[in-house]
Amino acid sequence: MAVLVLVLLSALAILSPPSEAKLYRNFYQKTCPRFDQIMQDTTTNKQINSPSTAAATLRLFFHDCLLNGCDGSILISSTAFNTAERDADINLSLPGDAFDVIVRAKTALELACPNVVSCADILAVATRNLVTMVGGPYYNVYLGRKDGFVSKSSTVEGNLPKPTMNMSQIIQIFASRGFSVQQMVALSGAHTIGFSHCKEFISGIYNYSKVAKSDPQYNQRFASALQSACADYKNNPTLSVFNDIMTPNKFDNLYFQNLPKGLALLKSDHALNSDPRTKPFVQMYAADQKMFFQAFAQAMEKLSNYGVKSGKAGEIRRRCDAIN
Ligand code: HEM
């Protein structure tokens, strides 16, 4: 009988795909009962003291998930032997506040329940809490991710969208990870908060007048304002502008309403409103915040489950910035 059970169990193990990590709603209920409370306290305190944390963390999480799945690999620091993801060019602008909120949560959680909670789970929950705190929709974050072992800056190129990419390239980055065009547009609504550095959009704000009126790229007054805001950007590369100039700190659908008015910041934001594949979704979300919130919440839940690691494919890191 015991042999039969063993055979059955191993057959089951072979049948279930190893890559499909199972996540649970209450994963830490027994092993770290104060998990939710500690996460809530840490994210709230950090956001109150540094209001840019929410946008910073949302972008950090997005970049983590797209590179090798949501496995906390973006949190790893470079060593003498390895240049990590976070030191790739595109990630150098990820703000310190985002890393800091994860360190704070991890420190508090290690005191309460050592070696139990993964950095990948902390990043996923911190993102959800912070999005909700600035007015965005709530969504479930299932737990039990392991932290990844691999973080290489050389794997970043081509795997994260850039404002200079055309829409087909951007769609492809999302499609190769199972995200539809509609989900990509909904996720791009993340640009309702946070800011961009001048160098990310400077090339577009000087030739706005060449564009036909029927397809407004930059609104002329907006472009002039951007030109003066960024006038000194070569000497001061930290100069930056809010992504959603109407309600920069509030998670809402104003980002989508801005696009047809020529008030988008990045070339890729403008493109969402001019490409026939994406424009219908922009119009839909601009007209109906509830629909945007539903779509964003669903897409974020999907993103949070993307490529998660389990079993021997990962570990519970003791510090989020280094492999054990
Ligand atoms: C669709 C293609 C996308 C492109 C080309 C893009 C590009 C960028 C760029 C260039 C910045 C400015 C970074 C800086 O100067 O510091 C930025 C900011 C930001 N992005 Fe995206 N992004 C895209 C999609 C997304 C998605 C899907 C999310 C999240 C789900 C996201 C979240 C954010 C956030 C929150 C910020 C503000 C960061 C801050 O304030 O620190 N982006 N993005």
Question: Describe the biggest sheet?
Answer: 2 strands, antiparallel
Q: State the CATH architecture of the largest domain.
A: Orthogonal Bundle
Number of helices: 12
Structural class: mainly alpha
Q: Give me the CATH fold name of the largest domain.
A: Peroxidase, domain 1
Describe, in plain words, how this protein is organized in 3D:
The chain is mostly helical and 324 residues long. The chain has 2 domains: 19-159 and 306-313, Peroxidase, domain 1; 178-302, Peroxidase, domain 2 (Orthogonal Bundle), CATH 1.10.420. Helix content is 43%, strand content 2%. It contains 12 helices and 2 strands, in the order αααααααβαβαααα. The chain has helices spanning 2-15, 35-49, 53-66, 96-112, 119-133, 167-175, 181-188, 220-229, 254-258, 267-274, 279-287, 289-304, and strands at 195-197, 240-242. It has a two-stranded antiparallel ribbon with strand order 1-2. Helix 3 packs across helix 4 (96-112) and helix 11 packs across helix 12 (289-304). The longest helix is centred in the first third of the chain and has 17 residues, at 96-112. Mean pLDDT is 92; it is low at 3-19 and 211-215. Protoporphyrin IX containing FE (HEM) is lined by residues 52, 55-56, 58-59, 62, 93, 95, 161-163, 170, 187-188, 190-191, 193-197, 200, 243, 266, 268. The site of protoporphyrin IX containing FE has 25 residues, from helix 3, helix 7 and strand 1.
In short:
By secondary structure, this protein is mainly α. The protein has helices at residues 2-15, 35-49, 53-66, 96-112, 119-133, 167-175, 181-188, 220-229, 254-258, 267-274, 279-287, 289-304; strands at 195-197, 240-242. Residues 52, 55-56, 58-59, 62, 93, 95, 161-163, 170, 187-188, 190-191, 193-197, 200, 243, 266, 268 line the site of protoporphyrin IX containing FE (HEM).
